[in-house]
């Protein structure tokens, strides 16, 4: 019975059944919650016994796949309708307790109790007919050992030991794998924990299996019992502390499946927070995490009660609602229904809530969903703060022990009233800090919908604010890439590169360019991507969206505010207003922007950029916009011709052959001729095929493909603008294309004197650009975590 | 509770304690205690759960014109059991841990209640008397002793299965470098009109292999009744339709010795007959 975590698959061990006792009071907030979050029943046909264990939204974004404890996979249409009357189609049956389901490359990946399987409908009749065993390496001793999770590649790797009885696994809001642990032996209460490779999660029953998992290293020191986790983690090197403790009964009794809200605000004010269900109490809670001194910790918050059954899985829908479902069988559950699926819809009304608590060197920072009443919020008596911890022991669960009452010595409210910084005397490392704010009022005198929140303080931050700490993001935790600058003329300058399009593989080209700029030129580079709700770089997301209510997400776009230069390649992004604003602020900043290929149609819909009371089009901003393919699309490559008289322009220093497989864009028409305010540097000549030595197409003349201009925005600061309509990942394999772009960075920053034809533009590491196009499956393009492109 | 009509003359609610005497003699406690127990139960309000025994109905996975499957814990197999029920009322249990046919039976397919209700701790129950086959992989090398325990053989790896148009599975596994497929089909016996099971095993080996064996059955009494037919323990007939010579070993196994050559797929076709 090896107890190990298999590369993103938790294999579950036993747990004693919780003792029978009353399940605990309701929060009593259900009715008030319904004003903000409405529960919608999804009717289920009785004969199908749909005991949901895991969900997946299908690529059509209309079908919900439901995997069940009984072992079926259903495809349900209509679940996302306002008043759902769904239809169900049984895709597969006869499987075993499915608690993980993903759809990848035309197949389901299902985590059954004793096997991870790839399940495919080969003959296309709508029913699965091929079941491939991806992994069944784990042993099995007791029916109580459930397996959760999905998205494996078929290799099983032991990751962690000491797991007790998890009921959920997935990335946290920073893209790091976490799991939901249940109260029981060695676990005083339920908690979210990070799956740290090589980590020991606290239950020493897995020690006998270390000999079968040499990659896990030596067997940890046996923890003492009874003790405290904070004490034992000094003794047991591999012991990973609970990141977020869910105080027993007050915050659930068996926390289960969770998912991060990547709806970009469609589910209300809690974007990018963790939403987690509970099996025993039928509630959904929120959680936030942060890494302090290298250790994960964070807070949990009540959110919504009153679900009809025990929740096992949650899933955000394409419309930004939350599906939750499960069963009430086997263990005590408060919900009355044997099984149910419900949908939680945001009504559009923002509740007054504690949005997030973060640890600060001097105390805690609290963020609220609405401005607070400053008088009440500056009164330290508003914050009733207590701490406690649990006994870390072999016995089942633990009472709350070692209670203390810290003193809030000051409370400072931010100008906008959304944040309060409290200074606290007597914080206790390793304790849950129990916040109770019954007197807090919003500016319009609403009480908090939930006055409680619980922060697990494993570490107290040093006297560096967490904002500063997060300015040097760790690779594992951020949905973007950062390449620190080495020595070079660019030292001290920060370039933000944006890869947010679906066709030209900028997710490959921008990291490559960033590495060249950081390694050979000394620029500090951050690459931002269009990411999906899992935090994966996802060029397969449709753009523009069919549904005008959907939004794309360029994660980390706030980095733009601190950028000295922008290299920008987006295509038809429909961004949330705050992200558009970040672009608009940059356009006003007087800093340079290098716009590549699709950037001239980089947005679709979204908040317009307004200058002197009128909307500014991308055509005006960049000096041209896509008006058709002049060269044959995906058929005719481009050769660059340097414009006569511009040979000495600094951007063209050292530029020799310019060639690439992308076709020549027509950016100017009779109605929109080439602007007199732009300086053309390079013309593009369509060639007859995709070979570098191909002859020019005699029927097509050259058109401008690279030019400079100036843009002066609302603050009156002039920005240097370079627009280059080549820029596919294949184009960037060409030295001329690379040097032109890198020279433009120096020029944009008014560092022309540093441009030298001899500076290295050599690619750092391997670079195998994929072909351009939208047939992502065939081209090998699929959602991947940012680190893949590192 | 004792006299509902006392409160509402037109109510159809029956009394379960007419004249203060309980109708159900099998429930312990006085009528007052029983009523108090119901009261205590209702005090739980929305938390109240259906009492044990009230909703459990026997379940049956019914097989009609297509095969049905259920992967779950089975008696004599364990957790990696795959039950398959075929049209015509023949069924089998396959062991995906040890790569073997573990049991066959006739009649209805299975009752999954013990796995589908409650915590799911129980075995799937075959709905007919089972004929059991020995533990340990069926395909072994000569010197390998058959496993008598429930361990996972290190030499075998289950690879999954695919379904035909009637949802009948073809199991796939690997034994060392040998790729094995294993398909069962129901068929109607011309002589008796009964539905029986026919099995086709194919083996592909990248190298020449001699001395491997495929076990067909174990029995204290294995009779050869001619025409490649064998009667096992007077309960089951096995007929080999391919040209391998079945042998009975000293330890009472009926086995097919095999010789595998590369680029040639070896097939075994066997019938399991209840006649």
Low-confidence stretches of chain A: 1-21, 464-476
The radius of gyration of chain B is 26 Å
Strand and helix order of chain B: HHEEEEEHEEEEEEEEEEEEEE
- Share of helix of chain B, binned: under 10%
Number of helical elements of chain A = 9
Based on helices, strands and strand pairing, what is the structural class of chain A? mainly beta
| Largest interface between protein chains, with number of residues from each side | A-B, 40 and 34 residues
Can you offer a commentary on this structure?
The complex is a heterodimer of chains A (790) and B (275). Chain A is mostly beta strands and 790 residues long. Chain A is 9% helix and 30% strand. In chain A, a hairpin with a 4-residue loop joins β9 and β10 (116-120). The longest helix of chain A has 16 residues, at 506-521. The model of chain A is unreliable at 1-21 and 464-476 (pLDDT under 50). Chain B is mostly beta strands and 275 residues long. Chain B is built from 3 helices and 19 strands. Chain B has an 8-stranded antiparallel β-sheet, with no helix packed on it. In chain B, strands 1-2-3-4-7 form a 5-stranded antiparallel β-sheet, with no helix packed on it. In chain B, strands 8-13-18-17 form a 4-stranded antiparallel β-sheet, with no helix packed on it. The model of chain B has no long low-confidence stretch (mean pLDDT 90). Chain A binds chain B through residues 17, 22-23, 49, 69-71, 93-97, 112-115, 117-118, 122, 128-133, 136, 139-140, 143-144, 328-336, 338, and chain B through 46-50, 55, 68-73, 78-80, 82, 96, 112, 116-122, 152, 157-164.
């Amino acid at each position: 019975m090896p107890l190990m975590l298999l590369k993103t698959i938790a294999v579950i061990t036993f747990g004693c059944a919780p003792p029978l006792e009353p399940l605990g009071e309701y929060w009593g907030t259900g009715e008030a919650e319904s004003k903000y979050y409405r529960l919608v029943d999804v009717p289920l046909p009785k004969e199908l016994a749909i005991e949901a264990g895991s969900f997946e939204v299908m690529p059509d974004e209309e079908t919900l796949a439901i995997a069940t404890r009984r072992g079926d996979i259903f495809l349900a249409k209509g679940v996302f309708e306002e008043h759902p009357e769904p239809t169900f189609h049984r895709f597969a049956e006869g499987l075993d307790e499915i608690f993980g389901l993903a759809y990848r490359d035309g197949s389901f990946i299902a985590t059954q109790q004793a096997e991870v399987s790839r399940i495919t409908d080969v003959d296309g009749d709508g029913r699965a007919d091929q079941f491939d065993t991806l992994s069944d390496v784990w042993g099995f001793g007791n029916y109580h050992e459930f397996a959760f999770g999905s998205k494996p590649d078929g290799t099983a790797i032991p990751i962690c030991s000491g797991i007790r009885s998890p009921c959920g696994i997935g990335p946290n809001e920073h893209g790091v794998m976490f799991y939901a642990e249940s109260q029981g032996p060695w676990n005083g209460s339920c908690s979210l924990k990070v799956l740290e490779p090589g980590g020991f999660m606290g239950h020493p029953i897995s020690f006998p299996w270390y000999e079968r998992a040499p990659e896990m290293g030596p067997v940890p020191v046996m923890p003492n019992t009874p003790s405290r986790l904070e004490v034992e983690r000094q003794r047991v090197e591999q012991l990973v502390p609970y990141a977020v403790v869910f105080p027993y009964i007050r915050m659930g009794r068996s926390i289960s499946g969770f998912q991060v809200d990547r709806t970009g605000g469609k589910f209300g004010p809690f974007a990018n927070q963790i939403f987690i269900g509970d099996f025993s109490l039928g509630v959904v809670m929120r959680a936030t995490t942060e890494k302090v001194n290298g250790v994960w910790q964070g807070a949990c918050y009540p959110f919504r009660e009153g679900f009809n059954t025990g929740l096992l899985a949650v899933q955000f829908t394409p419309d930004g609602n939350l599906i939750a479902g499960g069963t009430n069988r086997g263990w005590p559950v408060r919900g009355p229904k044997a099984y149910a699926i419900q949908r939680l819809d945001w009504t559009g009304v923002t509740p007054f809530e504690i949005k997030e608590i973060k640890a600060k060197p001097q105390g805690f920072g609290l963020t609220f969903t609405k401005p607070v009443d400053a008088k009440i919020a500056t009164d330290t008596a508003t914050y009733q703060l207590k701490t406690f911890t649990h006994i870390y022991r072999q016995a089942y669960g633990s009472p709350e022990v070692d209670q203390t009452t810290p003193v809030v010595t000051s409370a400072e409210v931010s100008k906008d009233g959304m944040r309060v910084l409290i200074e606290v005397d007597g914080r206790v490392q390793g304790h849950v800090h129990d916040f109770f704010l019954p007197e807090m009022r919003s500016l319009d005198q609403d009480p908090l919908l939930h006055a409680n929140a619980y922060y697990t303080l494993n570490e107290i931050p040093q006297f560096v604010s967490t904002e500063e700490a997060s300015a040097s993001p760790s690779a594992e935790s951020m949905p973007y890439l950062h390449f620190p600058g080495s020595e070079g003329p660019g030292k001290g300058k920060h370039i933000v590169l944006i890869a947010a399009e679906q066709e030209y593989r900028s997710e490959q080209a921008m990291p490559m360019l960033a590495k060249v700029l950081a390694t050979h030129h000394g620029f500090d580079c951050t690459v931002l991507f269009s990411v999906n709700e899992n935090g994966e770089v996802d060029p397969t997301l449709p753009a523009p969206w069919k549904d005008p209510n959907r939004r794309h997400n360029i994660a980390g776009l706030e980095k733009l505010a601190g950028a000295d230069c922008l290299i920008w390649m987006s295509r038809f992004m429909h961004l949330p207003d705050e992200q558009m604003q970040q672009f608009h602020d940059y356009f006003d900043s007087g800093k340079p922007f290098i716009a590549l290929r699709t950037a001239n149609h980089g947005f679709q819909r979204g908040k317009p950029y307004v200058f002197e009371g009128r909307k500014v089009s991308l055509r005006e901003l960049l000096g041209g916009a896509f008006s058709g393919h002049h060269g044959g699309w995906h058929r005719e490559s481009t050769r660059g011709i340097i414009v006569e008289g511009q040979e000495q322009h600094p951007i063209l220093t050292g530029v020799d052959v310019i060639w690439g497989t992308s076709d020549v864009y027509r950016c100017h028409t009779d109605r929109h001729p080439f602007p007199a305010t732009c300086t053309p540097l390079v013309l593009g000549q369509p060639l007859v095929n995709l070979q570098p030595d191909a002859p020019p197409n005699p029927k097509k003349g050259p058109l401008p493909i690279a030019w400079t201009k100036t843009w002066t925005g609302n603050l009156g600061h002039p920005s240097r603008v370079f627009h280059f309509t080549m820029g596919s990942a294949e184009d960037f394999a060409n030295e001329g294309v690379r040097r032109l772009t890198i020279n433009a960075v120096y020029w944009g920053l008014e560092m022309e004197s540093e441009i030298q034809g001899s500076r290295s533009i050599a690619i750092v590491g391997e670079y195998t650009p994929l072909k351009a196009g939208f047939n992502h499956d065939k081209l090998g393009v699929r959602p991947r975590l940012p680190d893949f492109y590192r | 509770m004792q006299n509902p009509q006392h409160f509402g003359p037109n109510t159809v609610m029956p009394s379960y304690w007419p004249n203060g005497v309980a109708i159900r003699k099998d429930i312990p406690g006085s009528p007052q205690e029983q009523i108090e127990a119901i009261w205590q139960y209702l005090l739980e309000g929305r938390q109240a759960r259906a009492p044990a025994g009230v909703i459990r109905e026997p379940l049956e996975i019914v097989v009609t014109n297509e095969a049905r499957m259920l992967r779950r814990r089975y008696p004599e197999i364990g957790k990696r059991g795959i039950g398959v029920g075929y049209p015509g009322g023949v069924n089998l249990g396959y062991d995906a841990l040890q790569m073997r046919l573990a049991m066959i039976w006739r009649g209805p397919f299975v009752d999954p209640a013990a796995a589908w209700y409650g915590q799911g701790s129980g075995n799937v129950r075959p709905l007919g008397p089972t004929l059991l086959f020995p533990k340990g992989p069926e395909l072994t090398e000569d010197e390998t002793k058959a496993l008598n325990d429930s361990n996972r053989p290190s030499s075998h790896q289950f690879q999954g299965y695919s379904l035909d148009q009637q949802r009948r599975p073809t199991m796939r596994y690997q034994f060392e470098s040998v790729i094995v497929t294993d398909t069962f089909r129901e068929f109607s016996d011309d002589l008796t009109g009964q539905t029986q099971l026919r099995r086709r095993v194919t083996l592909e080996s990248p190298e020449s292999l001699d001395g491997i064996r495929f076990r067909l059955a174990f029995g204290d009494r294995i009779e050869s009744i001619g025409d490649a037919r064998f009667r096992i323990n007077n309960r089951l007939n096995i007929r080999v339709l391919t040209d391998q010579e079945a042998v009975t070993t000293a330890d009472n196994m009926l086995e097919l010795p095999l010789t595998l050559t590369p680029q040639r797929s070896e097939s075994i076709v066997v019938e399991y007959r209840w006649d």
